Amino acid sequence: MNAIERMIGVRRNVVLAPYTTYKIGGPADYFLEATTTDYLTRAIVLARKEKMPYFILGTGANILISDHGFRGLVIRNMTNSISLDGTTLTAASGTAIADLIEYTASRSLSGFEHFAGIPSTVGGAIWQNLHFLAPDRNETVFIGDILKSAEVLLPDNQAYPVERAFFQFGYDDSKLHHEEIIVLSATFQLTPKPETEIRAQIESNLAWREEKQPQLRLSVLWFRI
Q1: Total tally of structural domains belonging to the chain
Q2: Which of 20, 55, 67, 162 has an alpha carbon within 20 to 30 A of 204's alpha carbon?
Q3: Boundary residue ending a domain (25, 58, 77)
């Protein structure tokens, strides 16, 4: 029995299809659901030390997994916490963007409404620099525009606070694409705005997406046997 098998909550040969929006995908050798940042960190560090391939699964949106599944550890990131200090919000990396949209709208804080209707967690949003057209439909707004700082787990297995510039954001790109860095939590700077205006923007964005039906970017994960 290896160290991964001894972790509390680890399951063997779990079919991944139910955890993706496309409902396809074979079994992962090992699977666990991390509900706390400490547990998420421990699982990643242990997988690294065991030299076991691992993949962090968020909402499972726009991911195509082979019927052969994943030879390693799949960690479903279910960390979910939100704290607010004035107009500054901090959330765990597994927190759904949809939850942050509702949480902040109800408190008359603007920033997340631009991403209404896009399934993602905080960690996934930062990884891809989540974006959508601005209200004028000419420019683009990015999650990086409102990110203030974050806590990340670096390849040396230590957690560090970093500033926005650390991520080197681009279009559908960030430093996370190129280095084995995991977001544990993120802090965002929001702007006060009347709730009615925020909710109007949410409805406008949802209507625009439904009308235009933009093709979603597909992340294909053809894992080897």
Answers
A1: 2
A2: 20
A3: 77
Asked if the structure places residue 2 within a domain, the reply is: no
Kindly state the average pLDDT of the residues 2-12.
90
Q: Are the C-beta atoms of 76 and 19 separated by less than 8 Å?
A: yes
Mean pLDDT of the chain: 92
Q: Which residue has the tokens 């200090």?
A: 85
Q: 20 and 89 in one domain?
A: no
Residue span of the structural domain in which 105 resides: 82-212
